[in-house]
Amino acid sequence: MRNTKNILIYSLLALSIAGCSKKLDETNKNPNATENAQPDYLLTAAIKTSVDAYWGTTNNMNSSLLFIQHWAKIQYTEEDRYVFSNSSFASLWSTLYSTTINNLNVLSKLGLQQDNKNYQGVALTLRSWAFLLLTDAYGDIPYSQAGNIKAYVTPVYDRQQDVYIGLLADLATAQSLLDPAGKTIAGDVIYSGDITRWKKFANALRLRIALRIADRDADKARIVVNEVKSQPDLFFSGTGDIAKLTYLSSPNQNPVNALFETRDDYRVSKSIIDKLFDLNDPRLAIYANKTQTTTPQEYIGVPNGLTNSDASNLGFAKTSKPGAYFQAAQAPAVIFSEAEFLFDLAEAAARGYTADGAADLYAQAIMASFKQYGLTNEAATAYLAQPKVAYDATDFRKSIGEQKWIALFGQGLEAFAEWRRLDNPVLPAAVAGVLNGDIPKRFIYPGTEQSLNGDNYKAAVANQGADLLTTKLWFDVK
User: Fold this and answer.
1) Which has the closest alpha carbon to 170: 129, 221, 217?
2) Do 464 and 140 touch, CB atoms closer than 8 A?
3) What's the CATH code of the domain at 46?
4) pTM, to two decimals
């Protein structure tokens, strides 16, 4: 009898505990969070978050656009003089790892569960782009163990060359998954669900990476280039193929527009304004605004890396802000343009990877850049007729490097990578820079990596070199 009573008591106690546990579970639920992630919401969020990071203040306007001398600072010039700490570059790292890559991994799993390979392919393509941004900026990064915190709390850093090879394989897989005749996707704010264009974007990224490794592994680069070349129906062929996010009005406006709503720290760099003047380049009126106070030259750039007092002495009203095109709330944030794709094909031809005409592709690339900004073919033809613009077959790095630098205006991270790789144009160091006449060659790792992933951080530094702005990355040969 006593045993029966004890069993009854324990049973009631267990039910009571279970009930409390259930109530606690319900209490700890976020009423604003969905129990089941929806792929369309995940896709939109991943795109918006990563593009904001790419075009935003920390990784673009306040760093890479200054390094590449598209923009300069007119006040608070510390960043333009390369004064950074190990917390300065944490944004790109934390945003892409904790938000973008995690969301895309979940999206890929949902695509598998729902038997929708197009979600998987799009997720893998965007994830590859995110990893590419990370390795181009920092060098060796967590890749093979990244995004799986349950298995790897402290992921190893993969060598940059291994990351590039892994991404080429990932993008080839994405290509095989993407099927225009397959299931539809939603939440796509880049291509509105056009899977053929996603296949083009995946191919374009493969071409970009092939050239990243070209100075180190020409054989692999040639193989990838010719794999891309074997699919001419998947070439970028018009402005509709440009990978971009077109913003809306506030609060979902372009990051440049959002910045200039409250601040006035930035101007167009003297380096690019002088170059555009020298080449009689009609893109000058798009890239820069005229000075607020009338000046003889109308467009006045700011030298990079002035002291605060010297910058201030130039005058806010007597220097050129970025053009109205870039300051518009709905300005598109470009990820990959047709012009870049054509410049890549031109370089592949110049390197002898293909039998195409490099000069013709170079001209097509410039014409595509003009078209991107609403300029006419006639204007592009006149521009190309100038001896200073004509393609120089004896120095493709100079011709392509200079024109690609111009065409990538506003895309600081990509322009920074290409400038390091092609070593053109030749840029002056910051006037009052703190790097002994040098220009940054990379982002330094976030300081949190030293405390949270110290052993793997130390191994990466031992392999790659000191964790300094001036340490060259594997792909940056010269």
Assistant:
1) 129
2) yes
3) 1.25.40.390
4) 0.92
